Amino acid sequence: MSRRPESPTLRLLSRSVRSRRGRLSAAIMLALLSAASGVVAPLLIARILSGIGGRHTDLTAPIVQLVVCVLAGAFAGGWSSYLLSSAGERAIEDVRTAVVRHAVRLRVPVIRRIGVGEIVSRMGPDAAQLRAITDTGVTVLPVSAVMVAAYITVMGLLDWVMLAVTVGTFAVASIAIRAFLVGMRKAAQSQQAALGRLAQSAQSVFTMISTVKAYRAEDRAVEPLREATGAAATSAIRAARAQAAISPLMGLGQQIAIIGVLAVGGIRLSSGAIDIAGFVAFLMYLFQLVNPLMTLAQGAGRIQVGRAAATRVDEVLGAEAEPSDAGPAPALPPQAPALRLREVDVTLADKLVLDNVSLEVPRTGVLAVVGPSGAGKSTLLNVVERFTEPSSGHVELLGAPLDAWPIGEARRRMALVEQDRTMLNTSIRRNLTLGRQDDPTDERLLDALRAVGLEETVRALPDGLDAVLGEGVQMSGGEEQRLAIARALLTDAEILLLDEPSAHLDGVNEMRLVDLLARLGRERAVVVVTHRPSTIAAARSVAVMEAGRVVAVDDHETLLATCPAYRAVAHDQGEAVMAAALS
C-alpha cells in the first residue's frame, strides 16, 4: 500500500510549532496544572463533606487548599490559553508568509490557473483555519486526553462498577459521533472551496467596478457572488448540523450515565461498597468528565476542518514554482544580437499560439512588432521573459541560450512595460525602484519622471515621491503607464520590452514617448508591441505577425510595398495618419 504524501502545509506548521516548543511546553504544563486542580478539587470537597458534623474536625486546611486549588487552576488555564494563542498565531504567520513567498514565485500560467482570488483565500480564511491544528492538536486534545485518563483513574479507584457503567455509555455515544466527524470534514472542504470562489468572483467584480456601473450591471455582476455565498452557507450549515449533533449526543451519554450511576450507586451505597462522600465525589467527576470528553469530540471536528484547510493551502505550496537557480550570467559571445528566436512554437490550452517564429533583435535600435489582435505579439514577450515556456524551438539572450541563464539574471537584463495596470499599492518611490537593490537619489528618480512628463505631477503631491498610490492618490491609466516607463528607464537593462506603451497616452505624451524611444534605441535594444502609427515611427524596423507567425521583417516603406499583411494593418490604422506621422 503506497504511503500518502506528506502535506507541505502540515510539514511547515509542524516545523513552526517545534521552533516554539518552549512556549508551547509552558502552555501544556500550565494546562496540566489547571487539569490537576480539576482532579484534586472533588477529592478536597469529599474530604470537607466527610469532616462536616465532626465536633473536633478542623476544616480550615482543606477549605484553604480548595480555594488555592481553584484559583491556581483558573490562573494556569488562562495563562496557558494566552501562550497557546500567541504561539498559534505566530505559526499561522509563518504559513502565510510561506504562501506569499511561494505564490509570487509560481509560474505565471499556474497563478492564472489557480486564480488570484483563490490564492488570497488560501492566505486568509484557509490559513486561519489551521489554528484548529496548532491549538487543538498540539495542546487541547492531549491535555483533554490526560484529564479524561485522570478522571477515569480516580473514578475507578472510587468505584469500578459505576465506572464501567459510565465508560460503556460514553463509548456508545462516541461511535455515533465518529460518523458526524467525517461529514464535518467534507462540509468544511466544500465551504472553503466556496469561499475561494467568492474571493475570486469579488476580485473580478471590484477590479472592473467602473465598467459594471457604466453598464448598470450591478445585479448581474453580483450573481456569481450570490451563488458562491449560497454554496458557502449551505456547506457551513452542513458542518454546523454535524457539529450540533455532537453536543446532544455527549449530553445524552451523560444523562444516561448519570441515571445508570444513580441506580447502581444506590445499590452500592446500601451495600456499603461506597460511602456518601465517595459517591458525591464520583458524581462530581462524572459531571466534570463531560467537558474534556466534549472537547475531544469537538476538537476532532476542528482538526478535520483544519486538515481540509491544509489541503487547500497545499494547492499553492505544492504548485510548481519557477526555478530558483542563482549565479552569474553565462559566457556571452561578442557582437551577438540582443535576442534571437529560432523556430519557436508555443501551445496554450491545446492552441498553437506561436508557430515556427524566428526573429532577431539587434543590440541597439527599436523594433516594432505589429499585427492584428490575437497574432501572438504579447506571447512573444512572455516567451522572452520566461513567463511562458516554448513547446519547441530555441531562444537566445545576448548570444547565450535563454534556459542557460539564471532566471533572475536574465530578467535583470530586460525591463518590461506592460499594457495593463502594473503599479503596486505602495509609494511612488517604491514603485519606481521595484527590483532594485540600491536606492537611487531623488534627483535620479525625478529625472526619469521628467522624461515621461510626470515630474511636476509628482512634485505637486503632498508627499511627493513618498505618496502612496491607492491611499488618496489616484492616477489615470496614462499616468500609471508613464510611471511604468519611468521605472524601466531607471534600470540598467540592455533590452526594453514594451507592450502597447502608448495605449493610454494622449497625443502630447505619445509624441514624448516617440522621442524617448528614439533616444533609448541609440543605446539599448527596444522591442515595442504597438498598433499606433506614431509609435511605429520610432522603429528602425518592423516585424509583422499574423496568426502566430512572423510573416515579414523590414522597414515601413518596404513592408508597405511588399507585405499584404502589413498593408492591412496600415489600412486598419489609417495609412494616411501613419504616413503623416512618419513624414
SS-derived structural category: alpha/beta
Low-confidence stretches: 575-583
Number of domains: 2
Please identify the top-level CATH class of the largest domain: Mainly Alpha
The largest β sheet comes out as: 6 strands, mixed
> What is the percentage of strand-forming residues?
5-15%
- What overall form do the CA principal axes indicate? elongated
Give the CATH architecture of the largest domain.
Answer: Up-down Bundle
First-residue to last-residue Cα separation = 76 Å
Mean pLDDT: 80
Structure notes:
This protein is an alpha/beta fold and 583 residues long. The chain has two domains: 8-198 and 234-317, Up-down Bundle (ABC transporter transmembrane region fold), CATH 1.20.1560.10; 339-423 and 493-582, P-loop containing nucleotide triphosphate hydrolases (Rossmann fold, 3-Layer(aba) Sandwich), CATH 3.40.50. Helices cover 64% and strands 10% of the residues. It has 21 helices and ten strands. The chain has helices spanning 8-18, 21-51, 60-103, 108-114, 116-129, 131-158, 160-207, 209-214, 218-271, 276-317, 377-384, 407-412, 428-432, 442-451, 455-459, 477-489, 507-520, 533-536, 556-562, 564-573, 575-582, and strands at residues 339-348, 351-361, 365-370, 392-397, 400-401, 414-417, 495-499, 525-529, 541-546, 549-554. The strands form two sheets. The protein has a six-stranded mixed β-sheet with strand order 6-7-8-3-9-10, sandwiched between helices. The protein has a four-stranded antiparallel β-sheet with strand order 2-1-4-5, with helices on one face. The longest helix has 54 residues, at 218-271. The N and C termini lie far apart (76 Å). Residues 575-583 have low confidence and may be disordered. Keywords: ATP-binding, Membrane, Nucleotide-binding, Transmembrane, Transmembrane helix. Residues 26-304 form the ABC transmembrane type-1 domain.
